[in-house]
Amino acid sequence: MSKNKPKEELEKLGKNILEQIKKQKNPEIVIPIRALSNINYDEKSKTIVMGEKVSSRYFFNIAHAKKFLQTLEIASIIKKELLETNKHEHLRGIFYIAKRTIPKTNINIVDDQVESDKIIEDLEVITGLSREQMHISANKMGSLVGNIIIEDSGDKIDCSKLGKGGYSIPSITDEIEFKKVNAKYVLYMEKASTFERLVEDKFWAKNNAILVTSQGQTTRGIRRLLQRLSEEHNLPIYVLCDGDIYGAYIYSVLKYGSIALSHASERLTIPSVKYVGITMDDVIKYDLKKQLIKLDEKDLARIKQVSKYDWFKNNKDWQRQFKMMKEFNGKVEIQSLSSKGVSFISEIYLPEKIKKKDFLE
User: What backbone torsions phi and psi does residue 55 show, to the nearest 5 degrees?
Assistant: First the structure.
């Protein structure tokens, strides 16, 4: 996409509104519906995609007027403050720029960040642009280590020489250039504590792997980074999460996409990703029943919900995992493997599983 394309798309939105006003029409913004009712699972691409249902936001409608104004105001901020100056701003910064009183009223354009964040997501589906293309960033919540050299903002960074902390993955990873990649696979894990254990044990060097972590749910920047490593360098992506329904969901977001970001599935999903653990079978194999944490009502409700998703309901292997969770009435964390030895995960568990290709898909 050319540098001018994002700006042109936002200008197109403004020109469309202006044309409606000239024709003395009630200004309207058409927005694809971002809800479960408009989400489909595409069997062919194995991804979650947005349907064709839309809603309209009218200026001369008391229920729509404020959101209509917010949409145009934030679009204007993005165009003038970011794209035209070639600068980036955080989601929080966009909120504060927009947080001002409408002239001759005591009403704020936005009252909290949730409002501005939702408008930015609306602008993504209206324009077809990603948040990153609009120069909007979010919190950095990830690290990377391995035999990979990248160029970030003109700086060449060797990710094998950054100590225990590794490279701090930025919110926007489309702008990163891979200068050299030497690895057999990428291992993504949800927990930073597991990452720290594997880094200290030099797992990445001994197994020629790239290690990536986040804090819980995977960020958009990390998802895009993993997708790029998969597509541009043909690297297998393995996922290591807690043995619970939330770990299964984190894996599914990487593989199939998410309901909230169905409009961005094409640039975020990795259909080839595989789940390396931890599983309910590991509880039996490694005698971890004493390490199980009892399920609560929230866990059971989530298992029931997730197991019915189209991308899980016909998957026999995952249905078996969900059934075992309920039979054990328990979940197990990655750190439970430490009960077998501090370095058990890096010296035995992961090498054996990856060598035997003992994955869930």
Answer: -130, 165
Cα–Cα distance measured from residue 296 to residue 288, given in angstroms and rounded to the nearest whole number: 19
Tokens encoding 17: 């509104």
- The ranges of the chain with pLDDT < 50 are 1-2
State the catalytic residue, choosing from 41, 58, 96, 167.
96
Domain extent at residue 103: 4-137
Q: What is the pLDDT of residue 4?
A: 63
Residues 146 and 52 both lie in one domain: no
Domain annotation covers residue 360:
no
Q: Are residues 177 and 243 in the same domain?
A: yes
In a domain, 73, yes or no: yes
- Give residue 3's pLDDT: 52
Q: Which residues, including other chains, have CB under 8 Å from residue 252's CB and lie 6 or more apart?
A: 306, 309, 311, 312
Contact present, 113 and 91 (Cβ < 8 Å): yes
Neighbour count for residue 11 (Cβ, 10 Å)? 14
- CATH code, domain carrying 313: 3.40.1360.10
Domains held by the chain: number:
2
Q: Does 209 map to a domain?
A: yes
Helices of type H across 183-315: 192-200, 203-206, 220-233, 245-256, 280-285, 297-306, 310-313
CB 248 within 8 Å of CB 304: no
Q: What angle in degrees, to the nearest 10, is found between the helix axes of 4-22 and 113-127? A: 90
Look up 96 and say whether it is catalytic. yes
153-196 pLDDT tens trace: 899 999 999 888 899 998 889 889 999 999 999 999 999 999 99
Asked whether the beta carbons of 56 and 29 are under 8 A apart, the reply is: yes
Q: Are residues 8 and 152 in the same domain?
A: no
The tokens describing 318, both together, are 């995952």
CA-to-CA distance for 195 and 212, rounded, in angstroms?
7
Task: Kindly state whether residues 128 and 148 are assigned to the same domain.
Answer: no
At what angle are helices 91-98 and 65-77 packed, to 10 degrees? 120
Tell me, yes or no, if the pTM score tops 0.85: yes
Q: Is residue 270 assigned to a domain?
A: yes
Same-domain check for residues 239 and 95: no
